[in-house]
Amino acid sequence: MPIITDQERIHHLLTRGVEHVYPSREFLEARLKEGKPLTLYLGIDPTGPNLHMGHAIVLRKMREFQELGHKLILLIGDFTGMIGDPTDKSATRVRLTREQVLENAKNYQAQASKLILLEGENAAEVKYNSTWLGQMTFTDVVELASHFTVQQLLERDMFQKRMEEGRPIHLHEFLYPTMQGYDCVAMNVDGEIGGNDQTFNMLAGRDLMKDLKGREKFVVTMKLLVDPTGKKMGKSEGNMICLCDSADDMFGKVMSWTDGMIVPGFELCTFETDKEIQSIAVQLKEGINPRDLKAQLGRKVAEIYHGAEAAQAASDCFDQLFREHQSPREMPIFVINGEMNIVDLLVASKSVSSKTEARRLIDGKGIKVGDRVVETYEETVNPTKEGVILQKGKRHFVKIVLTQTT
Question: Which reaction is catalysed here (predicted)?
């Protein structure tokens, strides 16, 4: 595939949603204009079963590199995922087993393929870092650690905070940046891309690349999609859109964002032009109803993953539920042959993934049968042939129907 060196596309690549470029934007721009293929990677630790909008922001930027003809590697951190990245963590992560990590990662490629090419011309390559990290001896680890100082690693904000609060810092967390940094050396890449919360880890790899390979590695850090408190929107916070979410859920979650998320949401999560985004910012300042722009954003996000028709249907359904206070006209139907415990029913109807989730929702008053909020785990549902509506949260509905007998 020929390398594209169009100035306008390179400018967009290096500015849209980009927080910083190391060693400099000018350095990477010059490399991109050379017309030679560059290899860059994104590393993802499988600490949860689904990729989310934070990953999508970086994957979309990866796709821009791919469309210019450059080589991509999607690195699954199946080894580092067992250790746990301490970034932004006030306490040590619960360590995962290899089985848990591989189970979490099993759908990553299918989800990532919504945004980057994993098949066909210039397809991204998928690698696992246990290939090299899992083979290292203790001698190798000592040699790797010798390229860092304690002072360097203690520069991390979260380590400083933990020490001030008297919280422990475990040695395996301390070594995490050295292991993640070694990934780029093992793959001998030109660069790495990630969220700006990964800057420390990515720059650790840049230092190692200089020491061990004598090469300059570029690093592109992307802006984070954050909530009003400044926390990144991700699986740890429980407020992020997952790439496996339905169009209804994607639209509904966008509608729950604050007005301050509208412009960043258009910039980081859609393909709207910079000019269109500037116009949206102006409209907000001039007093347009933010809800209308948020609905536009919700449709754009849902359309990327589910198509225009599903996105519009999600918008219409949301209006029906929240403006007109009606139940949706169409909803799944689940048939039972008699009275059933509410917890068992929630699991059987696939409204929840486990009894633990069902109990948590009941405790939070998040389950309704008809117009009544479910109060206890012991309640039962005994529908008529016409059915009764089971509601989870604000947007999930199932009609529970009694089986027809002859």
Answer: tRNA(Tyr) + L-tyrosine + ATP = L-tyrosyl-tRNA(Tyr) + AMP + diphosphate + H(+)
